[in-house]
Amino acid sequence: MAFEDLLEDPVIQKYLHELVGPKGMPVAAAPPDGEVTDEELAETLDLELNDVRRALFILYENDLASYRRLRDEDSGWLTYLWTFEYENIPENLAEEMERLLDALENREEYERNHEFYLCEVCSIRFEFGEAMDFGFECPECGSPLESMDNDRLVVAMERRIDELRTELNIDIEA
């Protein structure tokens, strides 16, 4: 995927927004060609220097930016020259999807293997053991706890798990 196309993809825009937030999005959405200093970015984008630095650091932590330091011979000050490395985005997104898949599989198993009770007044859900400890009465309002059918939730999770597996090209039998 070409660099320009990458930044026009709504999924990638959402991913970058989730990483750097609204204040850092101008930094993430308009990476310059070649190296640039944080001060140059702040001036060009008319942003606070701290917001630019925060966004750059987050991008760096996620392998989407790198820097090299230069020391001024006269003053001894360090200058950081930043380079954006957005070619790592597809790999980062795949790792995020794998983490999501793992979490969904664990949650789906938990939902499938536990029995739940619901206080329909307070909308608080309890596992069977908790409900039994409370005598099947809500500890907040005293209303009776009703057995909860979570089959629709489990089915929705199974459907999303299948979609993620397909998207990640993971064999369902694996």
UniProtKB/TrEMBL annotation:
Record's function text: Transcription factor that plays a role in the activation of archaeal genes transcribed by RNA polymerase. Facilitates transcription initiation by enhancing TATA-box recognition by TATA-box-binding protein (Tbp), and transcription factor B (Tfb) and RNA polymerase recruitment. Not absolutely required for transcription in vitro, but particularly important in cases where Tbp or Tfb function is not optimal. It dynamically alters the nucleic acid-binding properties of RNA polymerases by stabilizing the initiation complex and destabilizing elongation complexes.
Family: Belongs to the TFE family.
Entry superkingdom: Archaea
Matching SUPFAM superfamilies: Winged helix' DNA-binding domain
InterPro entries, sorted: TF_E_archaea, TFE, TFIIE/TFIIEa_HTH, TFIIE_asu, TFIIEa/SarR/Rpc3_HTH_dom, WH-like_DNA-bd_sf, WH_DNA-bd_sf
Limits of the HTH TFE/IIEalpha-type domain: 8-90
Domain statement: The winged helix domain is involved in binding to DNA in the preinitiation complex.
A Pfam match: TFIIE_alpha
Protein's UniProt name: Transcription factor E
Keywords, comma-separated and alphabetical: DNA-binding, Transcription, Transcription regulation
Molecular function terms from GO: DNA binding
GO BP term (any one): transcription initiation at RNA polymerase II promoter
Protein source organism: Halalkalicoccus paucihalophilus
Complex formation: Monomer. Interaction with RNA polymerase subunits RpoF and RpoE is necessary for Tfe stimulatory transcription activity. Able to interact with Tbp and RNA polymerase in the absence of DNA promoter. Interacts both with the preinitiation and elongation complexes.
HAMAP family in the record: TFE_arch
